[in-house]
Each structure stands twice: as structure tokens, then as C-alpha cells.
Amino acid sequence: MNIKGKTIKIGDNINTDFIISGRYKFSITDIKELAKHIMEDIDPDFYNKIIPGESILAAGKNFGMGSSREQAPLVIKESGIRAVLAKSFARIFFRNSFNIGLLLVETDTDKIGQGDIIELDLNRGKVWNVTKNIYLNIKPLPGFMQELLKEGGIVNYIKKHGELKI
Q: What does pTM read for this prediction?
């Protein structure tokens, strides 16, 4: 699986309330509308910086910490962000993301800057920062997780295959 895109860079310890504020949890139920509020407490113009289908989020350590709010990975995916790269992810956020088919990649993001063009090669386990012409190693994704991503998440996988075959 290969993905190419332009990065949006954010910092460490981005919690699920930063990804999508709790004030919208019950007032907005349409995920398309909810996605318009992504990261607005960090950057009110964040949603407008996303190039749907081309943006890749590059974060620091402990991305997705905090509550197990399922809306957090859903708004990232719905906003058009193709993947999230980070030094590390909160466990529940990691699980929720793969369940819905949102690609998360663990790598050293210190050498990725705002607006860098990067190419992810999951099969080779590499990120190529085209802008800086450097390669970064990624934590390998097991084959079954790559299959879940190809199908758009665990629910879509089970609908297609009838059961989870690991």
C-alpha cells in the first residue's frame, strides 16, 4: 500500500478533545458537519488547511490520548486526511482508528515539517520525505491490519468476508 500527500504538522499530546471538542459530541450528529470542527481549539482554520484525499497529519508523541471518543478518528477520516503519522499513539485511539479504516503510522516525525510532501510505502516499511529527500523507518503493520485498511475498517471487512480471518 502506497500513499502520497502533503503534511499538516502538529505537536505532542494531542488529545481527543483537541481533535474534536466535547462541546459538539451531542449537538452535531452528522459526521460531515462534525468534521468541519476538527482541531479548531488548536487552530480555528485547521479544517480549511486540509486537502481532501491528499493531506497527511504529522504529529508528535502520544497522539489521541484522553477519552475513547470514537468521533475523534471518524472526523479525521471524514475530513479527508489520508493518514496520521506520529511517534506514538494512545492505545484506544489506535484501535478505534483501525476499526474504521484510518491509517496510523508510527515513525520519527521530527524530520517531517509543515507542508512536506511524503510518500508512505507500507510494504517496504518506509516513509520518504520527498521535500527533504530522506527516508524514515516505520513500525511495520501486520498484514491483517493492512487488509482491514484496504476494506475500509473492520465492519466493512466482515460485511465482505462474513467473518474476521486473521
A: 0.93
